[in-house]
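ingest -> validate -> predict -> emit
validate: passed (alphabet ok, no gaps, 215 aa)
predict: started
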Amino acid sequence: VIGLAEAMQDERLAGADAAKRSEYARDIATAGHHLLELIDGILELSRIGSGQVLPSPGPVSLTDSVGGVIRVMEPQARRENIALTCNLSADLPPVDANESKLSQVLLNLISNAIKFTPEGGQVTLSAEVLDNGRLAVYIADTGIGMSPRDLEIALKPFGRVQRAWNRGRSGIGLGLPLARQLAEEMGGGFAIDSTPGHGTTVTLTFETTSATHAA
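emit:
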């Protein structure tokens, strides 16, 4: 950020065309967002580690949460030429979760899926009510996938899978571990099924308000 900003202040750049200045400004914005993501992730991990608890969960509409996240992630998917699809039934029951943290979990997982899916691939979000009354949410991609060893690394804070890193995909290694910790903190389940070269599916499960009231 500092280097690019200083370059833009350089008198020799004063006569540069608008396209070059726009490129520098875009790189500064990208680096700034990367830094913000890092800081937010560290603060969230620190909160969890210190034992601070989330506000009491309440009924949250999965459809509303997903809709907001999809709108945020669609521009990134378009830039990467990746089809981002959402298959949700209109009659899904609300879940017991913290609304802002649920959105953060979904944002992390969808962003991660897009990041490690090759151009022309697909990321799909779907959900269903299980026989036990819990709601399962699936985030599936056609990306590079992970071996069991890769997955072990990726679920550790700041863990980076070398094979993915070599493909030039940026990341700070907080997306998956933070999503898992937040989901579990809300009483949700978190599971990953991944195969190298065949993509990854993350499954979240949450109690529904209907199941809670029935109990």
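Residues 187 and 206 are 7 Å apart (CA to CA).
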